[in-house]
Amino acid sequence: MAHPDDVDFAAAGTVATWTDAGIEVTYLIVTDGDAGGFDDDVPRGEMAPLRRAEQLAAAKCVGVTDVRFLGYPDGRVEVTLDLRRDIARAVRQVRPDRVLVPSPERNYRRMAPSHPDHRAVGSAALDAIYPDARNPYAFPELRAEGLEAWTAREVWISGGGLAEDHLVDVTDVFDRKLAALRSHVSQVAGNDDLEGMLRGFLSANAARGGLPEGRLAEVFTIVPSQ
């Protein structure tokens, strides 16, 4: 994901269901979120370590302990070979079966998912998954580091203008998703109805997917990558 809190808005409930099932989850956050926040009294130099700490706390709420940061500048992420290499390195290190990424497509229903950093990270991540991570001759410096090629089985895409056709019922873990997001104090402290906003989005997802009234769902597009 691009920023601290992105994974929690998009998928913290789903992640909680994975860790509850014994699935190991690693977060790779491309930026430190140093351009985030709303309080002018917080020096800019303190924002990046603050947001790293918030993401670590949020991850614990849903059972994730392996959180990695690449330290790219917030708001200035572009699809570069360096970014593709850095994501491919993480894929080869972790060797995941499933990779969750933000959509590289613009969402014309809502602006927030289409932050340019999100789209850049989504595009670079898809390129890193195919072909970079699986091609032993791409980025030979990775092989020199002892990182052999790896092919992820599938990609889950969140938050774009694509056909989001896979629902995960997160009703029973909603409290943990909410706790994760409340860990991002620098970002959500001014939201007086965070719970109501989340329930609105997740209820709408569930309704579109035909789930019973009162259920909450996160939605994704799943792309086979083998």
Short summary:
This protein has 226 residues and is of the alpha/beta class. The protein has helices at residues 6-20, 44-61, 81-94, 116-132, 140-144, 174-182, 185-188, 194-208; strands at 26-31, 66-72, 98-102, 154-158, 166-169, 217-224.
Give structural attributes:
226 residues; alpha/beta; Rossmann fold; 43% helix; globular
Describe the structure.
With 226 residues, this protein is of the alpha/beta class. The chain has a single domain, classed as Rossmann fold (3-Layer(aba) Sandwich), CATH 3.40.50.10320. It is built from eight helices and six strands, in the order αβαβαβααββαααβ. It has helices at 6-20, 44-61, 81-94, 116-132, 140-144, 174-182, 185-188, 194-208; strands at 26-31, 66-72, 98-102, 154-158, 166-169, 217-224. The strands form two sheets. It has a four-stranded mixed β-sheet. A two-stranded parallel ribbon has the order 1-2. Strand 1, helix 2 (44-61) and strand 2 (66-72) form a beta-alpha-beta unit. Helix 2 packs antiparallel against helix 6 (174-182) and helix 3 (81-94) packs across helix 4 (116-132). The mean pLDDT is 94.
Q: What does the average pLDDT come to?
A: 94
- Full CATH superfamily name: LmbE-like
What is the rounded Rg?
Answer: 17 Å
Q: What is the CATH topology?
A: Rossmann fold
CATH C-level label:
Alpha Beta
**Number of extended strands:** 6
| CATH architecture name | 3-Layer(aba) Sandwich
Termini Cα gap: 22 Å
Structural class: alpha/beta
**Which segments are poorly predicted (pLDDT under 50) over 5 or more consecutive residues?**
none
DSSP helix fraction = 40-55%
What is the number of independent domains? 1
Order of H and E elements: HEHEHEHHEEHHHE
Strand percentage, roughly?
15-25%
User: What characteristic shape results from the CA principal axes?
Assistant: globular
Tally of helical segments: 8
Major beta-sheet overview: 4 strands, mixed
Side-by-side strand order of the widest sheet: 3-4-6-5
